[in-house]
Design brief:
The protein is mainly α and 202 residues long. Among the domains are: 50 residues, no CATH class; 58 residues. It is 60% helix and 10% strand. It has 10 helices and 4 strands; from the N terminus they run αββββααααααααα. Strands 1-4 form a two-stranded parallel sheet. A two-stranded antiparallel sheet has the order 2-3. Helix 8 runs antiparallel to helix 9 and helix 8 crosses helix 10.
Length: 202
């Protein structure tokens, strides 16, 4: 941080303030300065320090500031490292519901949902698929990513089996989505996708 400070100061010659956002799980670790001394020369660089672990989840939930939601997700992720998928699942669902209830623009909600979706990950793919399905239900079938919005809309319009077969085959050929992901997007079973995938290889 000190290196960035003096490089920015040297280039732009403007007043600088710096914030260190600490996302670790060590409550005792809270640096707010850099010091260096040698043969009578001493440098002291102090900066703002923000410890995510020390923030109050209830206060973060009460805020409509998107940054507060980001911090809440990170705060949850720190604790989630000690939890299994079954314990993390309801936490992510609750965060999703709270986020959608906020007075935030749709664009920011979409971005924050993506952050929640990928920052706190599940170990088990089946749990991830289950979360995707629950997320679909909560958001009334509106996915958080543009490509997924398109795919889900198309899958809905082409709900008949013949169209579903064609759509699954296209996803297998043109994307790197997992079998579970394709099944979730199209609204078919994993076995259905695996069968078509096997047929394509023959």
């Amino acid at each position: 941080m000190f290196t960035y400070y003096y490089r920015i100061l040297d280039k732009y010659q403007k007043p600088i303030t710096a914030f260190a956002i600490l996302t670790d799980a060590n409550k005792k670790y809270h640096p707010d300065r850099y010091e260096s001394s040698f043969l009578g020369t001493r440098v002291l660089y102090e900066f703002n320090s923000y410890k995510v672990l020390n923030q109050n989840p209830e206060e973060l939930l009460a805020s409509n500031n998107p940054f507060a939601i980001v911090i809440l997700v990170v705060h949850t992720a720190i604790h989630a490292k000690k939890l299994n998928d079954n314990q993390i699942f309801p936490l992510k669902i609750e965060l999703t519901k709270r986020l959608l209830a906020k007075e935030i623009s749709k664009t920011k909600i979409r971005q924050l949902l993506n952050f929640l979706k990928y920052y706190i990950r599940f170990e088990n793919k089946e749990t991830e698929v289950k979360f995707e399905e629950e997320l679909d239900f909560i958001t009334e079938k509106r996915k958080t990513m543009g490509i997924e919005e398109f795919l889900l809309d198309r899958a809905k319009k082409e709900g008949e089996r013949e169209s579903a077969v064609k759509f699954v085959n296209t996803l297998i050929k043109e994307t790197t989505f997992s079998v579970e992901k394709i099944a979730s997007l199209v609204g078919v079973s994993v076995d259905f996708v695996n069968k078509l995938k096997a047929e394509m290889k023959n």
